[in-house]
Amino acid sequence: MAATAHSEIRVDRSLCMGSGQCCWYAPNTFDQDDETIAIVTDPQGDPEEAIRSAVSGCPTGALSIVENEAE
């Protein structure tokens, strides 16, 4: 789980199969840990469009973006 000013990027570790698609779409935001499970390294590492492409391109739906409500 990683937070940005307006949203939170979540990785469901039980769904991630380690395909690496997120790293391909947004390499400055995502990486893989020692178990090849996706992790968020920098929630603002790539343009929002690239991050959203990584989320929508995840083959197992392990990634999501949760919009934070205005405070």
Automatic annotation (TrEMBL):
Its cofactor is [3Fe-4S] cluster. Ferredoxins are iron-sulfur proteins that transfer electrons in a wide variety of metabolic reactions. It comes from the Bacteria. This is Ferredoxin. GO terms for molecular function: 3 iron, 4 sulfur cluster binding; electron transfer activity; iron ion binding. Keywords: 3Fe-4S, Electron transport, Iron, Iron-sulfur, Metal-binding, Transport. Pfam families: Fer4_13 (PF13370).
